[in-house]
Every structure is written in C-alpha cells, then in structure tokens.
Amino acid sequence: MTRKAIWPVLASATWLLASGMAQADNTANVKHPLWFKEPSAYLQEKANLDDLSDIVVGEGPFGEEGVLYSDITVSDEQLEKIRAGNFTVAIALGWLGDDWAQQQLAGMREEFERLGIKIIAETNANWRDAQQISDLATVSVLQPDLVVSFPLNAQTTASAYKELADAGTKIVFMDQVAEGLEPGKGYVSMVSSDNHALGMNIADMLSDAIGGSGKVAAMYYAPDFYVTNVRYEGFIARMRAKHPEVELVASIGHNGPDRGQEVAQGLFARYPDLDGLYGSWSIPAMGAVTAASVAGIAPTDLRIVNENFDHIVAANMAQNGYIAGISAQNPYLNGITEARLGALALIGEEVPPFVVIPPIKVTRDNLTESYKRIYRQDAPAEITNALSN
C-alpha cells in the first residue's frame, strides 16, 4: 500500500484516538464496500460539528471547495449576452423514473427558457450505460453548444463525453464526473447536493428515530458511484462522531433501485432484531418497507431513513409507516443552477468547478413545509389527511 493510500486511514485513526473513540468504533464490525474511503481528517472534523445547516461540508471529486448554489447568479448584462448568443443545449439524463429526475428537468427547462437557450434534445438512458453512450453519440451529431448530463457510469461513458468536449461542446455534469475529464478543460462544473452532509443527516435522523441507541444496518448502492459513495462516507463519519450508542451491525449493497426488497429480505432474515435501517434512496427504501411488512415487522419496531424526497416515502411517513426521516435534495434548484453555470460558461465567464445545494432534514413534523419547499406547491390530500389522523 502506498503512503498516499495509507494517509486517509491514518488520518481517520488519528481523529479517533484524539476523540477517545479508538476502542469504540461503532462501525468497526461491518465490511464496507470496495470503493469506501476512510473519512479524511477534514471530513471527520466537520462530522464532529453540532450544526451542519449553514456550511458546506463536502469537497468535490478533485478536492475542490464547494460553492453554494445561491452564489451563482446571472446579471442583466450577462443575460443580454446569453440571449444574443442563440445557444443550444442537449440534456442527457440517466433516468427519468423518479421525482428527483423530473424536478431537476423542470428546473432546467424553466431556466433555459428564461435564458433564451434552446433545448434541442432530451434523452433518458433508463439506467443503461449502453443506451447512454448511444444517446450521447446521437446528441453529438446535433452539435449543441452545451450538454447537461448525469453519467450513469463514470468509466464506461467517459469516451463519449470526451468526444463532445473535444468537439467544443461545454459540459455541465450532474452529481458525477466522467472519468478522465478535468474541470475547466473537459467540463465546466459539477452540480450536486452537499452529499457528505446528506449522509450525515441520515445518521442523525436514524439515531433520533431509534432513541439514540440500538442496532442499525445500512443498505448502500454497490456500484462505484460518486454521490452515493460520499453519502455513505458522510454517514459513517457522523455515526462515529455523534452517535456512539448506535451500532452499525450490517452493511449490504444493492445493484439497482428495484433490488431493495430482495436485499432487505435477506438482511431482515439474518438480523431480525434491527432497530433501524439506512435504506439508500426512496425506491430501494420502499422495497425495504415492503420486505419489513412481509416479514411481519411492525413500523414501531423498525425505523427506516432514506435519501431523496419522493411522494412514495413522504406518504409512508405521513401514514406513520416505516419511514422516519428523509435527507432530501432540492433537485429543482440543481436544475436551475446547472442551466446558469452552462450559460455563463458559454459567454466566457469563469465559474466554480463544484457547486452544492444543501440537503433538507425532513421528518413528519415538517413534512408539509418541506413538501412545499421542494415541489413549490402544497402537499396533496393523501399526505395532509394522513398527517391529521
């Protein structure tokens, strides 16, 4: 092992020693995924803070300091230049099957219309790498000035993005960067939730949901996927820093959103006395809800916390179901920010390489308020009626 590879482990171990936790790592008995990186001293220091709401916790894929989305604005003079450019954009999405993708697309459509940039293509790879590569090849024929895209697989899609960049197309990435591309050269910027903070919120809400002590498990996305990787790393860092009485007894991966029920069934069979579960994002988490129900586990005996706000998990929470907390993104703001960054780059403005949107802690107590904040409309009767019961 190289010194570079050893350093994160040593940094984390040093922090544990300094905090008196060297003999009480509550995550030590699980096998972490192959892509897992021990939290750096910087990240572990952030994890030890009481209040994460007004700071940027995470760093970008190249160690860049995150810039808040609210700092990305377009002046009247810049807007005039953008509209005069008659620019075009293609939006190449990895999927469109959940509220996160739909809300992000809505933000981009609205902001590109305001900026006077014409959308000439929208693609949906439906979680298939090969389809996304084909989509990007189709997009390249159209020669857009800008592409906004979510790389499903940073490795397999890299050459397709490189071809676009080499042809002079500006690229703004959503949540993950294609391998081999560098900010300011191969792409303009990456926009994401502050995913380290999102994972830390998961740890906080899971601990709160089970009363501050007990046994929990984590169900993570198994492929090497930047945003879900760092959420898990943030979760582990916060568990160690703030929740020593909560023991992580199992950590298990799923390979796709529709595998949540299957994976959770095996988990509950092996660990029938779990108090709580980090259920990945909304769709796998609802798979775990189904698995728990089939296994005869009552919602009061198993609390599930997940990433990403969606109607399905919000409704379960409102109904006093298994979902006890949601560490939510605000994807509409992601979409607006991606459009602004791309537009500014098209007129030669320098933009930061990593821009973040802070996550939102959602519980049953602030569910309707959070719903309106994320969707910009009142919660439906299904949710408000359930909350009143």
UniProtKB/TrEMBL annotation:
Secretion signal, residue range per the UniProt entry: 1-24
What keywords were assigned to this record?
Signal
Example of a GO MF term: carbohydrate binding
Entry's InterPro entries? Peripla_BP_I (IPR028082), SBP_2_dom (IPR025997)
Q: Does the keyword Signal apply?
A: yes
- The UniProt entry lists the main location of this chain as other
Q: Which residues form the Periplasmic binding protein domain?
A: 90-349
> Where does the protein end up?
Cell envelope
Q: Name one GO cellular component term.
A: cell envelope
Return any one Pfam family short name. Answer: Peripla_BP_4
Q: Which family does it belong to?
A: Belongs to the bacterial solute-binding protein 2 family.
* Protein known as: Sugar ABC transporter substrate-binding protein
What organism, scientifically named, is this protein from? Paracoccus subflavus
